[in-house]
Design a protein that fits this description.
alpha+beta; Helicase, Ruva Protein, domain 3; 4-stranded antiparallel beta sheet; 20% strand; DNA-binding
Length: 275
DNA sequence: CGTTACCCCTGGAGGC
DNA sequence: TGCCTCCAGGGGTAAC
């Protein structure tokens, strides 16, 4: 489910409640997620105060007194993960793998497919963690621009769509937003990355930023006293122009939307509008 | 080095 | 109703 906007909305939903709170307990019900949950994680977390919640790509980073004797709780929602705040004594349901317990509330992590990740990084700099150290630029940061993307793709002869989803280049662009952004900028997902002009990369970057920002804004308005990341609609209250619209009429030209498979993932596009 | 295939897992949808 | 196949918003790793 979660792409960058969903993760960011989860983060924003937690901000009013968690920073400043002290961890009074933690429950690891499932030690095997995408990676093994570190041994002794619950004991390590106990007594630490959550100072801040940051995001890097699709990872949520809980600052647990990292500038003192603590570290970072690193959480990735995978394909099917979600977070929710609830009373600490709420009975766990199937696939509820982890609780971070505070005095009056608990943060619960649910993930049916278990592609999510729960890690711990000791020390002040979460960016040093091996999984974070290799990540590319943030798509909403200044460093991500059309000229930068043009320069970064000169030796990439593969199709542009799978490349957009490569977190070592740029983080946070998942399968939905890759297709949607390419449609908006009228670039074919099949086009070789090194055969796209500077001008078109500027349009693509604008489309990516606008799509992500609009989704965050749309999701943000729906979050109140619980953290919402499995809305189910997939497009986060924004209607998709091409994603999951195989055979339906293109909103721009009226011809049918196509689905193809690229690097093992579905890609949706309008062959007429996107070149 | 760049690119792709495979794999981790569960659940829902649709065909028979 | 049951069983089968395919599909799903991610991404690390191995192999080409």
């Amino acid at each position: 489910m979660p792409e960058l906007p969903e993760v960011e909305v989860s983060r924003l939903g937690l901000l009013p409640y968690l920073p400043g709170q002290r961890v009074v307990g933690a429950i690891v019900r499932t030690p095997k997620l995408r990676h093994d949950v570190p041994c002794g994680l619950a004991d390590r977390l106990c007594g630490l105060r959550v100072d801040a919640i940051l995001r890097r790509g699709k990872y949520l980073l809980f600052d647990c007194e990292s500038t003192g004797s603590g570290g970072w709780l690193i959480l990735h929602l995978g394909m099917s993960g979600s977070l929710r705040l609830m009373a600490p004594d709420t009975p766990p349901q199937k696939h509820d793998h982890f609780d971070l317990v505070f005095a009056h509330t608990a943060l619960r992590f649910r993930d049916p497919r278990r592609f999510g990740t729960l890690l711990w990084h000791e020390g002040a700099d979460a960016g040093q963690h091996p999984l974070l150290a290799v990540l590319g630029v943030e798509p909403l940061d200044e460093g991500f621009g059309g000229d930068w993307l043009y320069d970064a793709t000169r030796r990439r002869s593969g199709p542009v769509k799978p490349l957009l989803m490569d977190s070592h280049l740029v983080v946070g662009i998942g399968n939905i937003y890759a297709s949607e952004s390419l449609f908006r900028s009228r670039i074919s997902p099949l086009r070789a990355a090194n055969r796209i002009s500077r001008e078109r990369y500027r349009a693509l970057v604008s489309a990516i930023r606008e799509t992500l920002a609009a989704s965050i804004a749309a999701g943000g308005s729906s979050v109140r006293d619980y953290v919402h990341s499995d809305g189910g609609a997939g497009c986060f209250q924004l209607s998709c122009a091409v994603y999951d619209r195989t055979g339906e009429a293109c909103h721009r030209c009226g011809k049918p939307i196509y689905m193809i498979r690229q690097a093992g993932r579905s890609t949706f596009y309008c062959p007429s509008c996107q070149r």
